[in-house]
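User: Study the chain.
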Amino acid sequence: MKKKAGSTDMTAMCDVAFLLLSFFVMTATAKIPEALPVDTPSSTVQTKLPESDLATITIGKGKVFFDLKGRDIRKKTLELMGQKYGIAFSESEAQEFAIMEGFGVPIESLKQILDMRAADRSKANQPGIPKDSLDNQLKEWIYNARIANIEVADKELQIAIKGDAKEEYQAIRRVMDILQDQKINNFNLVTGLRTEDF
């Protein structure tokens, strides 16, 4: 007796594959480009950063960038920084700052960055936040972000340092000194995950 080749109806399989593909495409979020892309050092630690009440200081290419989680906290921080430096930010600028990713400009140039489109902002040459002894704006951003976080969320702000693996130690040390001057001795170091060598 001759055997006939069996046929399998693949219609249901194609439907399921198409539905899964559609689901993942529609629910996925695009990765937002970082203001200052850095190559973090590798580590085997798998502790995750908190989703809220977090300020991230990114260090790379001799520049320092600052980012905060939470729109209301960002707006309050901008208001406090405006009061400190005598710069008035409009409500639309505060709204734009609330949704903007990390930034790395002196506060005097922040309005120019806020006026840009999001796509142009990532391409703009941002010189970094000043952190020298004469104009230590990074210290003020951290200080005012901590106050804003306590006023808005009634929690202590956590700090994460995300440094480039090739960055000089002195640049990272300078940021750590700024944190220690404000009695911040606990902070996270952001690293890339690597497998453990056995």
Summary: The beta strands are 42-43, 54-60, 63-68, 158-163, 188-189, 192-193.
